Each structure stands twice: as C-alpha cells, then as structure tokens.
Amino acid sequence: MSLTSVSGRSADERPAADGTAGRASGREPGPAASAVVEVHDGERWTGVCALDWLLPGRGVALLVNGRQIAAFRDQAGGLHALDNRDPFSGAHVLSRGLLGSRGGVPVLISPMYKQAFDLRSGVCLDEDTAQDGGSTTLRTWPIRVRP
What we know:
This protein is mostly beta strands and 147 residues long. The protein has strands spanning 4-5, 36-40, 45-50, 59-64, 67-73, 79-83, 98-102, 105-109, 116-118, 143-146. Helix content is 0%, strand content 33%.
C-alpha cells in the first residue's frame, strides 16, 4: 500500500504519482486542483493532498507526522479522516474500506472483518471491544479544504 507522506512538504510542493507537478495520478487538474485538503494533527493544520485526489466514495491513506490516517470524501462531498488501523486485525487498511450508511449514519466498512465505523465519531457500530480487549473506536481527525 502506498502512503502519501505529508510531514515535510506542503501539498503544493509534492509531485503527483507520475512525478509531474500539479497533477494527481497523471490526470489533468480538475476545478478543485488548487484546493488543498488539510488535517489537524492536534497542534496545527497540515496540507495533505489536493481535493481532487479524494474521489467520492474512495479512501486515501495518508502519513501525517508519522501517523497513518484514512481520508474519505463521501458522495455528498463531505470529508472524513480517521485512523487507518483496523482495531480488529491490526492492519492499516481502513483507507481501502467501503463507505455507506446504516440507519442514516454514514459508515466506513472495514475491508478485513466488515465491522462498521461511524464516519463522524469513529465508534464501531458492531462491537465494543477488540479481541485484545482494546478500544474499537477510531480516532477522528479534523479535516477541511483550503482554497
């Protein structure tokens, strides 16, 4: 799995996957190409990627100051950021999960054992504790778009 590391460079400075500046995955910049997605790490806002890197319904794994974060853009355009580590398997795979809803609650479905996590709070809707007795609530991260 490839992570986008953002610890040392702004989103404007990072090259795209194909090595060219100002392009994401070889695509021409869309209307939101100049908009930067930022995540707050508890101390400051850090630019993580261009808004057009976050396709609706798909996740992106980010490395923010040494911490793996899964960022999502839902079908309505809302942004969500949660820990990328699945508390049940220990694998850093939640960015590959599916977005959906359960009873009107927007959820992330883990690709491992299919537990549902509330995208807004990180709370697991299926189980209260992991097999190791640990918490099943994912840390959520403030996320925003800066034009």
